[in-house]
Structure formats: structure tokens, C-alpha cells
């Protein structure tokens, strides 16, 4: 994981080529550094909200190596992110 959100594959059809690319990512990716979920969740939200076609099927994979490392006072990063999304 990294300290920022990163899009690894974008707007790809769901086919065997995508499957093989995901397997390749699995084989070469290694966890490193802090795993901050909030920047990645913000990026995921922006990507999902950029879809202007309501009939378009979307698939989003959120890859993580475990527990978030975000240090946010007053609760977990995921709980704070969920609360912030509900306020918008």
C-alpha cells in the first residue's frame, strides 16, 4: 500500500485480458509503507461519480494489504470517511 490513492487500471472491459492484468498485479505488487485508505477512497469516489451514464455497469476493486494506517483523531479512518460522505 501507499500513502496516496493510485488508479492501476481504468475503464477496462471485463474480459480475460483484464483478468490476466489483475493476476500480473497480484504477482508483482508488494506492500510497502503506510496504508492510508482515505486518499484511495476519495479517488474511488471521484471515479465512480464521474460516470454520467446511469445505465453503465461499473466495477471497482479496492485492493488493500490489510488494516488502514490513517491516523485521524477521534476514530478509524474508514468511519471518519463514511461520516464525511454522509454529510456531503
In short:
The protein has helices at 16-28, 37-49, 77-87.
Topology, element by element:
Elements: H1 16-28, H2 37-49, H3 77-87
Commentary on this structure:
The chain is 42% helix and 0% strand. The protein has three helices and no strands. The chain has 88 residues and is an all-alpha fold. The model has no long low-confidence stretch (mean pLDDT 77). It has one domain. The two termini are 27 Å apart.
Helix content: 40-55%
Low-confidence stretches: none
Tally of separate helices: 3
Distance between the termini: 27 Å
- By helix and strand content, what is the structural category? mainly alpha
Shape: flat
Which key phrases capture this entry?
mainly alpha; 3 helices; single chain
